[in-house]
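Dear colleagues,

As part of the handover before I leave the project, I'm documenting each prediction I ran so the next person doesn't have to rerun anything. This entry is a single chain, and its sequence is reproduced below.
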Amino acid sequence: MRLGWLSDIHLNFLDQPGLRAFLWDLSSRDADAWLLGGDIGEADSVAGFLRMFEAALPCTVYFTLGNHDFYRGSLSEVRTRVRQLVGESAHLVWLTTSEPQMLDGGIAVVGDDSWADGRFGNARGTPVELNDFFLIDELSRLSRATLVHTLNAMGDAAAARLAPKLERAAASCGRIVVLTHVPPFREAAWHQGRPSDEDWVPWFSCRVMGEAILACARASRSQLPRPLRAHA
């Protein structure tokens, strides 16, 4: 099983010749399936880009959405549009709304859009503000306290969706591929070539998602048969 992985491709910055060249290049790759980890376009274009992926690639595309996919729109409207799209598609799988996907070789794919939950670093005091807080309807014009509370809740919702899927996948598969847009561990949340500092990491990581992943890993490890020990 060969999986291709893409993330943060921001196709809205490509012109039509560039987009066609990019999709042609992907179609020539030897991949059995593709993982697309969000930031595909913006609110008015993400569904169209996903349709182009389906038309160009001869295999299943498993995807999550990223924060940029909601820019200049609302979370609810984009989610409704994408949910309708995948309902009509045979080869697009939105992992956020899907059960674990069982692949050949004992591999399961699970995922969630996730969201930076503001639990690492200096969320209440950082001077850093993202475009998310101006270009996504549900996050705009919020006080810092309300924004942090909202992001906490969005992270909690993502972890609540992911945790039972991880458990179901671990019950039948030896390997699990987890696809998210936001890194679930602060060590993976890099900015400008280095690990994010206390001011940036609140907006670039989701602590509760990492906790859900680690909890599943620990539970699965505890259920492994204990090695036999020889006694004299």
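Strands lie at 3-6, 33-37, 60-64, 92-94, 101-103, 107-112, 175-180, 190-191, 194-195. The chain has six helices and nine strands.

All the best with the project,
I.
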